[in-house]
Automatic annotation (TrEMBL):
Protein family: Belongs to the cation diffusion facilitator (CDF) transporter (TC 2.A.4) family. SLC30A subfamily.
Keyword Acyltransferase among UniProt keywords: no
Biased segments, Basic and acidic residues type: 1-19
Protein name: Cation transporter
Domain of life: Bacteria
Record field: transmembrane: 32-53, 65-82, 102-121, 133-153, 165-190, 196-214
InterPro entries: Cation_efflux, Cation_efflux_CTD, Cation_efflux_CTD_sf, Cation_efflux_TM, Cation_efflux_TMD_sf, CDF/SLC30A
Keyword Transmembrane tagged: yes
């Protein structure tokens, strides 16, 4: 009994601190930084155009582009920060900075939604004159800018930051289409009320993006299993490796949007197999599930089963 208990607490821990995902962060950072400069510059132009034309559709699209600029900025900053080495005080590095930045981004997006919604309702009750030609021109330029930014992002390194930024830019494309539609309707004699109506449509796009981003941030902060990873599938993949009897106490969580971690106990048929089994498990986790940081504790399957049968051994 004492021998079993003593052995149970004498397990070594194997760690895989591979940071291969970070090798791409520098390239994605450049892509995101270019998109950030391009998007922010035109958002400023769109603000001036919206004020000159008295168009809420242009101003709301500019607000959407500013929120996207924040997203791009967070992505570029986190890509740069991911290259920073871990320290004694920050053993995982600064990867969670991306999540905190995203949380700020969500809060800002909701504030923009409230402002645009409030202004749209006021303008629907008392619709001002809108310069349709200016709205059409600036909206058309915005559509062109969004197409260029989307093209740049699609050609860049397709990590989670870039894919998330691309999702926002696609929303911008629809927002620019709404601004162009409002400008065209008003320019050809349609009612000016179409401007606040279509601005509400853009507001809805921002709301959808904000809710999606909030769900992703909440999942990471609550240590939830990363999207697209099934713990049952991970456990089955590991138990298919020769020498692995079972996997238990399995935990999977995210350090950032593109960095995942795992901790688990591994029951082996024979403890002598550990040196050969460990690299296979780490390779499976990295290549099949994108989990670069893993902590695996080996245990003797026969001794563990004996502990389960023995009364009080598992206490």
């Amino acid at each position: 009994m004492n021998e079993m208990t003593e052995h149970k607490h004498d397990h070594s821990h194997a760690h895989d601190h591979s940071h291969g995902a970070h090798s791409h962060s520098h390239g994605s950072g450049k892509t995101l930084f270019f998109a950030l400069i391009f998007t922010t510059a035109f958002a400023v132009v769109e603000v001036f155009g919206g004020l000159m034309a008295n168009s809420l559709a242009l101003l709301s699209d500019a607000g959407h582009m500013f929120t996207d600029s924040l997203s791009l900025g967070v992505g570029a900053f986190s890509a740069w920060l991911a290259n920073k080495p871990a320290s004694r005080q920050h053993s995982f590095g600064f990867q969670r900075a991306e999540v905190l930045g995203a949380l700020f981004n969500v809060i800002f997006m909701f504030l923009v939604i409230v402002y645009i919604g409030y202004e749209a309702i006021l303008r629907m009750l008392d619709t001002p004159e809108v310069n349709g030609a200016t709205v059409l021109l600036v909206g058309g330029l915005g559509l062109l800018v969004n197409i260029i930014v989307a093209w740049v992002l699609m050609r860049g390194e397709q990590d989670m930051n870039v894919r998330g930024a691309l999702l926002h830019v696609m929303g911008d494309l629809l927002g620019s289409v709404a601004a162009v539609a409002a400008g065209a309707i008003i320019y050809f004699g349609g009612p000016a009320i179409m401007d606040p109506i279509l601005s509400l449509f853009v507001c809805l796009l921002i709301l959808v993006s904000a809710v999606r981003l909030l769900r992703a941030v909440t999942r990471v902060l609550m240590e939830g299993v990363p999207q697209g990873i099934d713990p049952t599938e991970v456990s089955q993949a590991l138990t298919q490796i020769d020498g692995v009897h079972a996997v238990h106490d399995l935990h999977i969580w995210s350090l950032s949007s593109n960095s995942h971690a795992l901790a688990a106990h591994v029951d082996l048929d024979h403890m002598s197999q550990w040196q050969a089994t460990l690299p296979q498990m780490q390779s499976t986790l990295r290549e099949r599930f994108g989990i670069a940081h893993s902590t695996l504790q080996p245990e003797d399957a026969a001794l563990r089963m004996a502990c389960v049968v023995e009364a009080g051994c598992g206490a």
